[in-house]
Design goal:
- It is built from 15 helices and two strands.
- It is mostly helical and about 400 residues long.
- It has one domain.
- The protein has a two-stranded antiparallel sheet.
- A hairpin with a 5-residue loop joins strand 1 and strand 2.
- Helix 3 packs parallel to helix 14 and helix 6 packs antiparallel against helix 7.
């Protein structure tokens, strides 16, 4: 794919991307409110009253209202050159936050959240995804043939194993899968040799097969393992392990073509038929309320956002900025693919939220920071070049697989 210098490469604030993101986020406030409304909590049947009377809907609306500030700060206040030169600082800060959360959190099982104020918590594993994107982009800025030598393997292996390991210790397997996928996609677009790519995929598949065999042989009762087993072979696990997914599919199917409507008494969402239908399983609420058409429009919205980011990366001449956009795009892609897949029974349940739609401040802030990073790149891309490479030679660069 040839990157040609043209009007598409000019520096600009990408308004189409911002509009699509905020339309999706506003729809998320509505969806969360639909999933958590109470029949007796709204004095009047108005949309505003339903949102205000919904505890989670109101909090999601607050996250949406501060999002423009987040994007503005990341786009206009934080220097693009500073991010590029001090990429490792973001990595150290994110890993440090992961370590502090792991040490101070005494909860059993998942230890991924830490308290802030006023009942709000943060999930450091969300922010470490962005830090990994930045540090990988920095590595690929001058590494045009990634993993082609032992030094590259060791450096990237050490850089990624620390945040992945700390996140696993917190019980956040889903976040690790996101980071692995982002890592692979960035290497793919960064010029990874095809034979190395297939070798890594083969090793991953073999490792999963061995893990699956071990789980079956040992009869482990770990809930994360049960989630995988319930997807591969539901007969091997208790019915309770498939309860959430089964109810989610029933809720989505009940919406039919056009949906049952919003704020309907007796709806599955109102009766809490699907656990966590305002967070990880928000797609089941959307399917019930808006039907197949609503689900299709949501998926189309994500597709437009991802294609827009791919277009922006395609015409970014600066390799560091290009890899930043690819990384953010890959992060959103995996979240959408896995979340929609798990709520419809096509993927194992991993607790990964739906970007801009699922309730959660950490995820919303992380996604908005990611969008801000993309906008920061497009705002500065015509005045930045790779060290030692002129704009003339940059225009002949290709995304290639060798």
């Amino acid at each position: 794919m040839m990157v040609n210098e043209s009007r598409h490469s000019r520096a600009h604030f990408d308004l189409p991307l911002v509009i699509m993101v905020f339309v999706m986020a506003a729809f998320g406030v509505l969806s969360v409110s639909v999933a958590t409304f109470s029949v007796s909590s709204s004095a009047e049947d108005t949309l505003l009253n339903y949102i205000v009377s919904s505890y989670y809907g109101m909090r999601q609306a607050i996250f949406l209202m501060i999002s423009p500030i987040i994007i503005g700060v990341v786009t206009y206040v934080i220097s693009y050159d500073f991010v590029r030169r001090r990429a490792i600082l973001f990595y150290y800060a994110a890993c440090g936050l992961l370590a502090v959360t792991l040490i101070t959190n005494q909860a059993q099982g998942v230890k991924a959240w830490t308290d802030l104020i006023w009942g709000y918590t943060i999930q450091p594993s969300e922010f470490v995804k962005l830090a990994c994107i930045i540090v990988i982009a920095k590595h690929l800025e001058t590494e045009t043939d990634p993993l082609s030598n032992m030094r590259s393997w060791i450096r990237l292996g050490v850089l990624m194993s620390i945040p992945w390991g700390l996140t696993l210790l917190q019980g956040e397997m889903g976040s690790v899968l996101v980071m692995i996928f982002v890592f692979g996609i960035m290497l793919f677009f960064g010029g990874l040799r095809i034979k190395i790519m297939f070798a890594i995929i083969a090793a991953g598949v073999s490792g999963f097969a061995l893990l699956y065999g071990y789980m079956v042989a040992s009869g482990s009762s770990n809930y994360r393992l049960e989630r995988i087993l319930s997807f591969v072979n539901p007969a091997l696990v208790d019915e309770s392990a498939t309860y959430q997914v089964n109810n989610s599919k029933i809720a989505i199917g009940s919406g039919g073509l056009t949906g049952r409507g919003t704020f309907v008494q007796g709806a599955f969402s109102q009766l809490d038929y699907v656990p966590e239908d305002w967070t990880d399983f928000i797609f089941s609420t959307i399917g019930e309320a808006f039907g197949f058409i609503g689900c299709a429009l949501v998926i189309l919205g994500y597709l437009l956002i991802l294609l827009r980011m791919l277009h922006l990366a395609r015409y970014t001449l600066d390799r560091f900025g290009q890899m930043i956009i690819i990384g953010v795009m890959a992060m959103l892609l995996f979240h959408v693919f896995e979340n929609v897949g798990m709520t419809t029974g096509l993927m194992p349940v991993t607790g990964i939220p739906l970007p801009f739609l699922s309730y959660g401040g950490s995820n919303m802030v992380t996604n908005m920071i990611g969008i801000g990073m993309v906008l920061n790149v497009t705002k500065n891309r015509s005045v930045t070049t790779m060290p030692g490479i002129t704009p003339q030679t940059q225009t002949s660069r290709k995304w290639s697989m060798r």
